[in-house]
Design a protein that fits this description.
By secondary structure, this protein is mainly beta. Helix content is about 5%, strand content about 40%. The chain has helices spanning about 10-15, 25-35, 360-365; strands spanning about 60-65, 70-75, 80-90, 100-105, 115-125, 125-135, 145-150, 160-165, 175-180, 185-190, 200-210, 210-215, 220, 235-245, 245-255, 260-270, 280, 295-305, 310-320, 335-340, 340-345, 350. The strands form six sheets. Strands 9, 10, 11, 12 and 13 form a five-stranded antiparallel beta sheet that branches. The chain is globular and about 45 Å long.
Amino acid sequence: MSRVPQVPHRRLLLKGALAAGALAATPTAAQAATRTAAPAAVRPEKAAPFVNPLVRNRADPYIHRHSDGHYYFTATAPEYDRIILRRSRTLNGLAGADESVIWTKHPTGVMGAHIWAPEIHRIGGKWYIYFASAPAESVWDIRIWVLENANPNPFKGTWVEKGQIRTAWETFSLDATTFAHRGSRYLAWAQHEPGMDNNTGIFLSRMANPWTLTGPQIRLSTPEYDWERIGYKVNEGPSVIARNGRLFMSYSASATDWHYCMGLLTADADADLMNPASWSKSPVPVFTSNDTTKQYGPGHNCFTVAEDGRSDVLVYHARQYKDIVGDPLNDPNRHTRVQKLGWNADGTPNFGIPVADTATDTEVAS
C-alpha cells in the first residue's frame, strides 16, 4: 500500500509494536506469475491502446484476469472505509464499469479503520480478498485480514471474514499478496520487525491454507539504500511475476509523496524461495517519478496480462502533480494506471517510465 501517516505518524508508531502472522500465496497471484494463454472459452481480443488514468481516485490497485474472460479490479478507496470491486472483459472497460461495495468497515472494534490495499485472488475454487485494517479505537494497529467467498461470482454470495493472518510478531503489517510456485503457496507482505531501524520490510512465508501461515517467515528486504529511506524507511506493496526462469518481486519504497518508487527482488525459479540468499536486490529503483510525463509517486503495483493473453501489463498508481498540500495520506488523487511491461534481452523486466496521461479529444483537436 502506498501511504504516509497522519499525525501521530503511523510510521513512528510502528516502533516498539509486537507483531503477529504468517504469509501465503494464492492462485490468483500465481496466474499473474505464470504466462498463460487466453481463456479457452474466450476468443482472444486485440487490445485497444490503454487509456490513462484508468480508474481515478483508486490507489494500491489490483487486477486479476480470471478464466471466465473478465478482469476483476479492486483498490484502496480514499475514504479508507470499504472494499470495492469492478469487472470488465477489457482493461479499458474497467474505467466505466459499475463499482460494487462488497464489504464495509466495522463501526467498532477490529477491521474498523484504515481499510487498505485489497487484493482479490482465486484459490481452490473460492475467492479470497486480502486487505489491511486497524481497530476503530486504535487506528494505527494495522494488520492483515482475509475474506472468503465460495460463490463462483464474487459479486454474489457471502463474503465471510476468515480473520487475521498471524505473523511472527504482533506489529504494523499490511500489503499482503499471495502466489503459487512449484506446488507451494506463499504469502509476501510488509511488516515492522521489532528491533529494526525501519518502518517496514518485505517478508515471505509458506501457507497452510489461504488464511494461515505455516512459518517460518523470512525477511527478503529492508530499506537500506537512500532511495528507500526518503521521508520514511519503507519497503511495502510486494507483487510477483514469474518469467524467463526467474521470479521477480517488485515492491514500493519511501514516503508516499513524489519520492515513492519501486524496487525489484529476483530469485531463480529453481531456488529455495525460503532462503533469503536466493533473492538478489536491485541497488537502484526500477520505476520512478517523471517530470516529462508528469507522473509522480508511481508504485504499489501488480501485474496482469493483456487481452491477447500474452502481453504483460504493469498496473500501478500515481499522482499527476508533485506538490501536495498537507499529509499525502489525505490526498485522494492517486489514480490507477496501466501500461505495457517490457522485457530486456537478458530476461529481466523493463518497467520504463510512467506514461503520460492519455490525451483527450479536446487536447488532440487543439
